[in-house]
Amino acid sequence: MVSRIIELLxxxxxxxxxxxxxxxxxxxxxxxxxxxxxxxLYSFSSRKQIRQIINDFKPDVIQVQNLYPLISPSVLxxxxxxxxxxxxxxxxxxxxxxxxLFFRDGKICEKCAEGREWWCFLRNCEQNWxxxxxxxxxxxxxxxxxxxxxxxTIYYAQTEFQHKRLIQEGFPADRVCVIPNMxxxxxxxVNSKQGQxxxxxxxISPEKGIDTLIEAARACPDIQFKAAGSYERMPNLxxxxxxxxxxxxxxxxxxxxxxxxxxxxxxxxxxxxxxxPSVLLEAMLRxxxxxxxxxxxxxxxxxxxxxxxxxxPGNVDDLTQKIRYLWDRPDLCRQMGRACREKVLREYSxxxxxxxxxxxxxxxxxxxxxxxxxxx
Length: 376
Description:
Elements: H1 2-11, H2 30-41, H3 44-57, E1 62-64, H4 74-81, E2 86-89, E3 103-104, E4 107-108, H5 118-122, H6 129-144, H7 147-151, E5 154-157, H8 160-168, E6 176-178, E7 198-201, H9 210-219, E8 225-228, E9 245-249, H10 253-261, E10 265-268, H11 278-285, E11 290-293, H12 298-301, E12 308-311, H13 316-327, H14 330-347, H15 350-371
Parallel strand pairs: 1-2, 2-5, 5-6, 7-8, 7-10, 8-9, 10-11, 11-12
Antiparallel strand pairs: 3-4
Helix pairs in contact: 2-6, 3-4, 9-13
């Protein structure tokens, strides 16, 4: 998504300078892990590099996203020292929850909210004491030293749900806005065929509710189910699926397009809060109705009874009932599919994203001028 934002800005004629650090630098070595531990708390090298970029590029605004584990909030302090407004895209819940998921042991966990990040270590949320300690410490230090509170001009969430959670945690309501994700319509054709199976696409891992999906497939032996995505996080999954459920593994962009097109319904059965899954937009843009968990910000994307149906997360019977209802009504699937595509083109287009982003940037610049006493 970050690369798409950069591309979008350049398409509209903006000069963009990017700064990335990759977790591949850690390289799995003990030395790399120790370096990541301390750089997550405060990276002097990243701050120095950002200082150089600011001096050379002279940006009007700086946008940040994932600063951990190698960049750290130190770059925010440097931006503040140069009086440059900072806009932060909140792609997950990491400002509140050290691992960004609000999820542990197969269920929602909010123990680290309200400044209690020590629970990440006490419960060893990362299944690695050293890593869990690092996650907890970096959130604690950032919170107590107000790195984000004092050095970010505007935060933008992806959903109203995330927006409300940030405000509940004390982030100023007048400096938190919502910019939903985008998807480019190019190459996303609508297939008017009835569709031959129920599709799932995305990361195949426990928080995605895969077990619920498998049990729903088992309860509908006459309906074909297909799941696209790597299942290395659930290596024994192949031994658990019923005969009417195929694990397709990782698919490239072209294969994924065909995968959506040949389906009748798309299912998203997550049991965690999610961010703003692009698979929803991709399926909806291809005119596929969605059976989706009623959790987090997902009901903002899927309008119950209009672009799909919502079910209670983790409830196999409810999911089965909703799948069966749509499967037996192909005309309704096509009707909802048209509504899906119309909503995506109307609300989640690159142009809509650009307008919202420009308004946010301009607001951040004005806030920054006001805070620095510039009344021009």
